[in-house]
Amino acid sequence: MITINPPLTDDEVRSLKAGDQVEINGVIYAARDAAHKKLIELLNEGKELPFDIKGQIIYYVGPCPEKQGEVCGSAGPTTSSRMDAYTPQLIKLGLKGMIGKGIRSPEVINAMKEYGSVYFGAIGGAGALISKCIVAQKIIAFPELGPEALRKMTVKSFPATVIIDSNGNDLYKIGKERYQRR
User: Fold this and answer.
1) Which of 5, 31, 177, 182 sits at a 20 to 30 Å CA gap from 43?
2) Domains plus CATH for the chain?
3) pTM (two decimals)
4) 3-class secondary structure, 108
5) Which is catalytic among the residues 6, 18, 36, 112?
6) How far apart are CA 168 and CA 12, in angstroms?
């Protein structure tokens, strides 16, 4: 298990390989497609993003409302491909990691290779378990989006797997090829 603490450096990102198991501690940002669209709109209008994206990790999640006494409700990953239209521009600005589930487009993978970024997978269907790793959260932009608002989250021992590394090695493809060789 590799422990990482965002913001990530280029060297940290380049050292991670497809298949590595990581534990994330520190601040990550939560945003789904509606928030991503608004981030790109801000950039297109020449405005600054509501957080410094350099070295950061975005978790593709829209957490459920928390029950009394909880920090966060169920917080499982959403399908990453819905963010693919927006992601290359964010990677170019310094985004170093994304957490989600599912495959990524060739455009995202090319941006990851060019600018040094990594894609982590979190276990889908385990949102209630994952939410226990979120120790604090705060909406920092787009509150009108409800669960899809941009959030700053503090996580402790958040488990993830490197699915696509900064060289473009894709665990989904590697696993499929290994299975087919049997």
Assistant:
1) 5
2) 2-181 (3.20.130.10)
3) 0.93
4) helix
5) 36
6) 16
Please give the structure tokens belonging to residue 22. 């990581």
DSSP H helices, the chain, are 10-15, 33-44, 87-92, 106-115, 127-131, 171-181
Long-range contact pairs involving 76-83 (C-beta distance under 8 Å, separation at least 24): 76/122, 76/123, 76/124, 76/125, 76/126, 76/127, 76/130, 77/101, 77/121, 77/122, 77/123, 77/124, 77/130, 78/32, 80/104, 80/119, 81/105, 82/32, 82/33, 83/31, 83/32, 83/33, 83/36
Residue 102, pLDDT > 70, answer yes
Q: Is 118 an annotated catalytic residue?
A: no
Interval 32-70: pLDDT, tens: 999 999 999 999 999 999 999 999 999 999 888 888 888
Q: What share of the chain is helix, strand, coil (3-state, %, to 5)?
A: 35, 25, 40
CA distance 45 to 87: 17
Are the beta carbons of 90 and 137 closer than 8 angstroms? no
As given in the structure block, the two tokens for residue 174 are 């590697």
